[in-house]
Automatic annotation (TrEMBL):
Name of the protein this chain belongs to: Cytochrome P450
Transmembrane segments: none
Stated family: Belongs to the cytochrome P450 family.
Alphabetized Pfam families for the sequence: p450
Cofactor: heme
UniProt: heme binding residues: 438
Keyword Nuclease: no
Keyword presence, Metal-binding: yes
Organism: Coptotermes formosanus (Formosan subterranean termite)
Keywords: Heme, Iron, Metal-binding, Monooxygenase, Oxidoreductase
Length: 449
């Protein structure tokens, strides 16, 4: 039987599907997933190369060649479908209904809390509507000075390095990003005497989801709770919640609270002020929600921006010709002027933006995402049924040779306007796309510049 329109991949037993390659047991990708067991399932910088270059590269190259742009993998005992083709990704990601994340995002609750990234259903929809306007570029504009000051500190620090021929760039870059986040999200000025950022719990902790997935019995909360790893994770979460609650309580009791958030002018209004102001006018958005959303921004922002910046610098260091073009463009826009850039200055840095995009193509900060379908999805001749998990791997899609010839080559000209227009919109998704995309996509790319 050939897979006809409306045939479901999981409604039938594997062998009865005949030529449906996805479900032929001996040809499925189970063996490869087992081989990836050593790779830690997380995106922190050190593990990034191991996880992506082995696990996801194999998905994108070997598996793609052998099985095509859609195939089944096993995550522990549960089957999911990997989608690589932009046309298929669009059907899933653009859907207003398929916005649920897969079960393992729940495991992030102990780390991220229940903010936008991990929440679902009505709560997610409500919070997203409320918070989206806070990421407007006009609000970000107020923080350009913070970005500029932090970038200057970073450059000064690098200039003080005795040996710049080889440097672990992640440490100073991460420090810079964490400082910016403390200021922009929590309203704690960098270098503030009142709160020591180096003690911040947001500089500690670790995602343990990969560990739990490698030890599937730990997916059961009743067993996991008994372990030392769980004890440490919950302790860390307690610190984060305590710290964030204290920050928001201090804000509420401070004399200037509320003044900036309602004035509406683009000045440096930290997210904590905006969220607290929202909780005053919307009784369904309580202080606990504010605490969880703040924690999410702090944790979501750190690794993603840190990795994007570190990889950008890495690629510029490896490509002096590209670096020279970037410097030339900076000179054209700023000359010898050391002013704080304006939004329009940043918009003129077109080549730099191409470099950042090319970096995010090669090293997307979130290299793997997922959804659980809430309605059937018809992808060509296949139907993926509601309830099925779908894995989306920007790392692999960004390397499909039919879309990006010579995919491993760092070539910022791939992002020249006419070349972008010739590609499918969903061929480039470092911030994801559709209703559950990164909440500040626009502002983050300006921030990175
Ligand atoms: C280079 C920087 C960044 C990249 C590449 C990035 C990428 C992404 C991606 C791919 C998603 C979707 C994740 C998924 O579907 O599982 C996402 C979601 C999200 N990001 Fe970012 N992100 C970046 C920076 C930030 C920053 C700085 C913040 C906050 C301060 C942030 C806040 C969020 C939030 C709240 C969500 C959840 C949105 C929702 O589900 O409604 N991101 N991000």
């Amino acid at each position: 039987m050939s897979p006809s329109a409306g045939s479901s991949l999981f409604a039938q037993r594997p062998r009865s599907v005949g030529c449906c390659r996805l479900l032929q047991p001996r040809r499925c990708i189970r063996a490869r997933v087992v081989r990836c067991r050593e790779i830690r399932f997380q995106t922190q910088f050190r593990e990034y190369n191991a996880f992506c270059c082995t696990g996801l590269k194999e998905l994108g190259e070997t598996a793609y060649k052998e099985y095509g742009p859609m195939f089944r993998v096993w995550l522990t005992v549960l089957p999911s479908v990997v989608l690589l083709q932009p046309e298929h990704l669009q059907i899933i990601l653009a859907s207003r209904k398929n916005t649920e994340k897969m079960y393992f995002y729940k495991l992030l609750h102990n780390f991220l809390g229940e903010g936008l990234i991990t929440s679902t259903g009505r709560k997610w929809r409500h919070h997203r509507r409320l918070i989206q306007p806070m990421f407007h570029l006009s609000i970000l504009e107020g923080f350009i000075r913070t970005f500029h000051d932090s970038a200057r500190h970073l450059v000064a620090k690098l200039n003080n390095e005795a040996d710049l021929s080889s440097i672990n760039i992640t440490l100073p870059v991460n420090q810079c990003v964490v400082n910016i986040l403390h200021e922009a999200v929590l309203g704690i000025p960098t270098g503030s005497q009142s709160t020591d950022v180096s003690d911040s719990p947001f500089r500690q902790g670790k995602v343990v989801v990969p560990y739990r997935m490698q030890h599937p019995w730990l997916l059961l909360d009743c067993i996991y709770r008994l372990t030392e790893v769980a004890r440490r994770e919950l302790q860390h979460q307690k610190h984060i919640i305590h710290f964030t609650r204290k920050v928001s309580k201090n804000k509420i009791s401070s004399s200037d609270f509320g003044k900036s958030a309602v004035s509406g002018t683009p000045q440096d209004i930290p997210f904590v002020d905006l969220l607290l102001a929202a909780s005053e006018t919307d009784e369904t958005f309580c202080e606990e929600d504010v605490v969880h959303e703040l924690g999410t921004f702090m944790l979501a922002g750190q690794d993603s921006v840190g990795a994007a910046l570190a990889f950008s610098l890495f690629e510029l260091a490896r490509h002096p010709d590209v670096q020279e073009r970037v410097v030339r463009e900076l000179n054209e826009v700023f000359g010898s002027d050391d002013r704080t850039p304006s939004l329009s200055d940043l918009r003129r840095l077109q080549y730099l933006e191409q470099c950042i995009k090319e970096t995010l193509r090669l090293y997307p900060s979130v290299p793997l995402m997922s959804r659980t379908l809430t309605e059937d999805a018809k992808l060509g001749k296949y139907t993926i049924p509601a309830g099925c998990g779908v894995l989306i791997a920007p790392f692999a899609t960004h390397r499909l040779p039919g879309i990006y010839p010579d995919p491993e080559k760092f070539d910022p000209d791939r992002f020249l306007v006419d070349r972008v227009e010739s590609r499918h919109q969903y061929a480039f998704l470092p911030f994801s796309l559709g209703p559950r995309n990164c909440i500040g996509e626009l502002s983050h790319s300006t921030w990175l510049r």
